[in-house]
Amino acid sequence: MKVFLTIVSIILLYADLSVYGQSTLSYKESFKELHTVLANREVYFQKKNKYIAEVKYKLEHNNDPIQQFDAGRALFNEYYDLQVDSALYYSEVMLSIAESSLSYDKYKRDEAILCVARTYAYTGMYKECEELLKKELVYSSSLPGHVKQLYFLVNLELNKSLADHVSIERELNKIREGIIVNLDSLIVCSERDPIWHSIYLGNKLKLIGKYDEALSVLFESFNKLTTADREMAHVAFYLGDIYRKKGDSEQEKLYLSISATSDFKHAVKEYISLWKLGIILYDEGDIDVAYRFIEISLQDAMYTGAYRWIRQITQVLPNIYEAYNTKIIQQRNAIFGGFLIISLLLVGIVWQYRKLKKNKKELAQINKDLKIVNKELNSVSEILHLSNAELQIMNSQLIFLNNELMSASLLKETYLTKFIDLCSDYIDKFDDYRRGFKRLFKIGNIDRLGKELNSRAFIEVEYKEFILNFDETFLKLYPNFVFEFNNLFPDDERQEVKKNELLTTELRIYALMVLGITDSNKIARFLRCSITTVYTYRSKIKNRSFYPDSFEDKIRELKQEQYFSIV
Question: How far is it, in rounded angstroms, from Cα 94 to Cα 110?
């Protein structure tokens, strides 16, 4: 029996090691999820603000000091990783409530002081933080569990912040000893919370160089969490940091992307994982994504007031900006070369146009000769000229639309090919149309010719084909357009594209705006409808969206995000 138990123990040990030794998680899948979450970060941010507004209402409309204190604590926790100034404000609100209404509850006052001290450590006010911890609050074993844990957490964060500013080895070793002492205390205090217990224990094992043991401890919690859990951001970050120390950059990227996904799902703006991942991608040569991650991280760090992270981000920022600008210059040079090619193509189109114009003159001469034979051909000739003019207008609209598209977005090879093919097709169709008329003239079938020229069927068919070509070309350039557009609306207001359509009329209006065509007159000409109809569509769509007052600004932002999916 003992032998059996020993064998089972060995099997379980190796099974546990395999959990973190051979992870089946895919960096590609986690990276894809991260991009999706980043695209919807505004939605998560609004959800968090809605919750904050509800808690503020409870604080302002409640006379019970205990419930007021609890609401202040909730607001402090929400703002701590969102906006440090507001976190400091609500920690002071907690202190005011504790001193005025809850003076009999010393521990509430101690908790509020610790919250104030924590914001001081966060913003670099280290001296003020130390004074609060030494003068205003003396540690006692009688402190409630959550206050005791907060006490050691503040001390730990203060020591970690001080370590970033100390270069003398003797002082640094002293600070490291303080970090380990506070971690030991947190390990004891958090025994009833298995997730945070494993985080503190794994952190200590990492500091003393026991990486495999740290991984084993952290993976016990990792396997219980998803990115919807706030603790996942912390667990995954420490896993990534351990793999960094082990020299495994692929696993480091995997867990940093999972950590960043969890951060953004909870709408925090004080984080490390995203910009750490951006630096790795920059080192690997993925300049575009690295630039985007660093830019988002810097904006959020400035928003929250995380000056510690701002300082670290700005150290790597110049190199990434320089590399990104170099790439932009290279792309501009490539675009310039494309314009040269287009110029040559336009010369060919002009030559074809002149040839077409010469054929029109020949057709006009034939009409003049036929006038002598039959006076009725005068009206037929006028109808013919009118039809030719409509074809010229449609061809000019096509050239105008392509010029607008070329000035509003990066030129793509597929777009140029489509443009040339359409021009060539319309020239051929027009020539066939002309030859058909010429044939009818020669055989003297005037009635048939009049019916053909009075019919608009040809124009309608060509316009439907033109709209189909526009939809296909636009969706090739902006494949995520419909998805990103619908993210600006509640679920019940999203655009549903019919089975036999690529874009709806509403989607085409804003597709043209993405391409830089914002004039309602031009949009109405393109869609062959009245300008009133265009105004009506634009007004209704804005009012149904999340952003009725800034909807078209969001469309411009949508164009920038679509840029990343194109390049």
Answer: 10
Are 201 and 187 in contact by the 8 Å Cβ rule? The answer is yes
Domain that holds residue 508: 341-566
b/e map 142-153, b = 16+ CB within 10 Å = ebeeebbbbbbb
Biggest alpha carbon–alpha carbon distance for the chain: 119
Residue matched to tokens 């900006």: 321
The tokens of 7 are what? 């064998």
Q: Which two tokens stand for residue 336?
A: 């310039």
Tens of each residue's pLDDT in the chain, 567 residues: 333 333 333 333 333 333 333 346 789 999 999 999 999 999 999 999 999 999 999 999 998 999 999 999 999 999 999 999 999 999 999 999 998 877 778 889 999 999 999 999 888 888 999 888 887 665 666 778 888 999 999 999 999 888 877 778 888 888 899 899 999 999 999 888 999 999 999 999 999 999 999 999 999 999 999 999 999 999 999 999 999 999 999 999 999 999 999 999 999 988 889 999 999 998 888 888 888 998 898 888 888 876 667 777 777 767 776 655 665 555 555 555 555 566 656 665 666 767 666 767 776 776 666 566 566 545 545 665 665 666 566 666 556 555 555 554 554 555 555 655 666 566 667 667 667 767 767 777 777 767 767 767 777 777 788 888 888 888 887 888 888 888 888 988 888 777 667 888 888 888 888 888 888 888 888 888 888 888 888 888 888 888 888 888 888 777 655 544 444
Helix axes 249-265, 41-60, angle to 10 degrees: 40
Contacts within 8 Å (CB) and 24+ apart, 124-133: 124/161, 124/307, 124/308, 126/158, 126/161, 126/162, 129/154, 129/158, 130/158, 133/158
Q: Is residue 380 part of a domain?
A: yes
Q: From CA 384, how far away is CA 194, in angstroms rounded?
A: 85
Q: What is the pTM for the complete model shown?
A: 0.55
Could you tell me the two tokens for 207?
């500091």
Q: How many other C-beta atoms are found inside a 10 Å radius of the C-beta of residue 196?
A: 20
Residue 34 within a domain: no
Q: Rounded to whole angstroms, how far apart are CA atoms 204 and 403?
A: 62
CA dist., res. 193 & res. 461, Å (int): 69
Whether 495 is in a domain gets the answer: yes
Q: Is residue 26 part of a domain?
A: no
> Judging by beta carbons within 10 Å of its beta carbon (0-12, 13-18, 19+), is residue 380 exposed, middle or buried?
buried
Residue 555 token pair: 């469309």
Number of H helices, E strands in the chain: 25, 0
**Domains: count for the chain:** 1
Residue with tokens 């985007």: 292
